[in-house]
Amino acid sequence: MLNDQEKYRYNRQLILDNVKEAGQERLKNSRVLVIGAGGLGCPVLLYLAGSGIGKIGIMDHDTVDESNLHRQVLYSTEDCGKSKARVAEKKLRAQNPFIEIEIYPYKLSAANARDIFKKYDLVIDGTDNFSARYIINDAAVLENKPVVYGALYKFEGQVAVFNYQNGPTYRCLFPEPPKQAPNCNEAGVLGVLPGIIGLYMANEALKICLGIGTILSGKIQIYNGLSAQLSTVQITKNNTLKIQAMQTDYETPGMSLCEFDNLKIQEIDSESFNELINTEATFLDVRETWELPKISSRGMIEIPLDQIENRVTEIPKDKQVIVFCKSGGRSKLAIHLLTKHFGFKNLYNLKEGIKNCQIPV
Questions:
Q1: Average pLDDT over every residue of 187-196
Q2: Is the domain of 306 the same as that of 173?
Q3: What Cα–Cα distance (Å) separates residue 56 from each residue in 13, 33, 99, 172, 276?
């Protein structure tokens, strides 16, 4: 039952014919898990909390970075370096004290997905990598949970609802992961676009919880931010796809931007990187020239990723070269290109990039 404060808070929803008090109570009794508290997750979380979803789960293992702030509207400059899940929890509790929030400040995996999904009625996929999307899909199918999906690419975004009342799943659209597909760290995204797509996602989630409207199942809606045009693509359910158990390994070639073919990439961790930075070691920085922090080292070579093929002669083959970027994605791609097309065998990737390194600047 709604108390008097809740009735006043949600008054503008209660007067809607398709909501009223019974609908608001349905929202209060709903349990929604949001995976990814980034560009898509932030607007979704704000509006689900504001609308009165009774229990919200927040799953994100990452920390706030200053480069997030142009699009991840839950966070402020003072939040940089803090857990996204914990910051989001604090701010949503302040926004609406009548809801319950549970956080999962660690990475989604095949091992934990099903146990977490059991606690919720609906899953929202705000992730940006293929391994997570396939884990979400398979766990949702096995636990019979609908998934609200969103994705971004530069000026374009897409929204769909998968596994809704035995409807098409993500694997009906993409049976296997593509060989190459960048996330927004590599491709870029206009800051307002995640807000637009996130609101579409929140709208689908609220319709599902309320049991109203036409759900975006069996189709994917595509929004072009440059033309403001919407287009819809039909999705046919593939009845030959049978998911009977979670895969043992979702980190397979093609799952993300950087895992191609069967290339085995040698890596070093942040501790080793810190030890090498003041030595005679050779480093290849594939970030854009404007990216910070700048690193001072005698063996530093700066070549942005899109210039690698034209400047390959600047990279030595006769010594160990440590390749890095901000988060480890572009550096892996650079190593793939140099190894496959130019015969390099001396390249080492900085695992997860410099974002976790304590380095002299």
A1: 88
A2: no
A3: 19, 6, 8, 28, 44
On the CB side of 87, CA atoms within 13 Å amount to 24
* Complete DSSP assignment for 309-341: GGGGGGS-SSS-EEEE-SSSHHHHHHHHHHHHH
Q: How many domains does the chain have?
A: 2
DSSP-derived letter for residue 360 is -
Let me know whether 22 and 168 are in one domain. Answer: yes
Looking at the fold, whether 186 and 326 belong to one and the same domain comes out as: no
DSSP letters of 71-132?
T-TT--GGGTTSBHHHHHHHHHHHH-TTSEEEEE-S---TTTHHHHHTT-SEEEE---SHHH
206-251 residue pLDDT tens: 999 999 999 999 999 999 999 999 999 899 999 888 899 998 777 6
Listed in sequence order, the residues at least 6 apart from 16 whose beta carbon sits closer than 8 Å to its beta carbon are 23
Residues in the chain: 361
Lowest-pLDDT range of 149-153, 166-170, 257-261, 350-354: 257-261
Q: How far apart are alpha carbons 322 and 29 in whole angstroms?
A: 52
Among 137, 122, 124, 197, CA closest to 172: 137
Residue carrying structure tokens 């040698």: 266
- pTM equals 0.73
Percent of the chain residues past pLDDT 90, beyond the cut = 67
How many angstroms separate the CA atoms of 194 and 133, rounded? 17
User: d(Cα 297, Cα 360) in Å, to the nearest integer?
Assistant: 9
Per DSSP (E only), the strands in the chain are 31-35, 55-59, 100-104, 122-125, 147-153, 156-162, 219-224, 229-234, 266-268, 282-285, 300-302, 321-324, 347-350
Q: Read off φ and ψ for residue 174, nearest 5 degrees.
A: -130, 85
Q: Is 241 domain-assigned?
A: no
Residue 259 covered by a domain = no
Closest to 228 in 3D by CA, of 254, 256, 190: 190
Of 184, 206, 186, nearest to 52 by C-alpha is 206
Residue carrying structure tokens 């702030």? 69
